[in-house]
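Section 3.1: Structural characterization of target chains.
Under the original work plan, the team committed to producing a structural model for every single-chain target entering the pipeline before any wet-lab resources were allocated. The record below documents one such target. The sequence was received from the expression subgroup and is listed exactly as submitted; it comprises 325 residues.
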Amino acid sequence: MKKHPEQNEQFEAQLRNLPDTVNQSLAGLTAGTKLNNRIQMAVRDSRASRQKKSFSVRRFVSVAGVCAAAVALFVGLSPLLSSPANAPLIQSSPLGDKPTATERTLRADLTGSDVSIGQKQSVPSYRNLWSSSSDSSTFPLIGVNGSYYRMMTSPRSVSSSLLGASLGTIAEYTTEPSLSGTNVMLSNKAAVGTEVYGISGMSSTFVAAEVDGQMRLFQRVSFNGNALKGSETLADVMQLSGHVASIELSGVGTITDTSVCADLISLLLNDATYESSGSLSAKQSLLIELDNGLVYQFTVKNDKIASCGTWSCPEFFEAFEAACE
């Protein structure tokens, strides 16, 4: 029980006056040395006992305070520790129609979903949209008179609203396209007689053809030493100007400001230097999402990019990193 200060002072005064009180109460009895020592010892024992109790109470209050603070901290952190993660970095969305702002999350699921680039706080990981052959032979492609297009994993089906004019039909199906001529429309994936369409306004960049009942997307690439034809430039095989919605460089960052994206693409098209008709093998990608929902991919290695030919442009990467800061 807690005592008030006035009570403590009164109690101590009574103890100090105890010898006088005893003398008065005993009416003339003499307190010998032995009795006097016992009285003084009682006073000291009483004070020591009260000090010990006071220390115990203070220690209890201190420990209780620490425990209460720990409980409060745990309760405060519990929602953060148990709450679900932020919105998924990959969301499914139909391709072909112009994506909304909420649908713009990275388009890179390789298991069949259509995915889109979105603004994220974390550094994006490597994502690969190139389709590969199940038997590890030449990748799935379509050859259009010496221009080659590689099948992409996304989208799984191209919207009919994106299809432009027909470029012709597959005249030759072959498992060894490198042995065929360049003056024919061929494929190692689409069947003979399959109609091949250019993507509206981008037929030198993308084509589409039906594969296993789905209208699949194919992107212009290098193949068997063939990349640019005649006087073609990067801008001719990468018809993206005015259509870029966002850009992602794996391991670096994502840019969704369309004006910054436009400046970066302009820099790339104007300053990139053509290195070779070959490709690159690397685990870094540059993904460019367009306002029609499609995604263009470059393979990246150091300051070089590869798709239709290999190009060098250190200025682009410097500007991209600066824009991400």
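Residues 117 and 314 are 23 Å apart (CA to CA).
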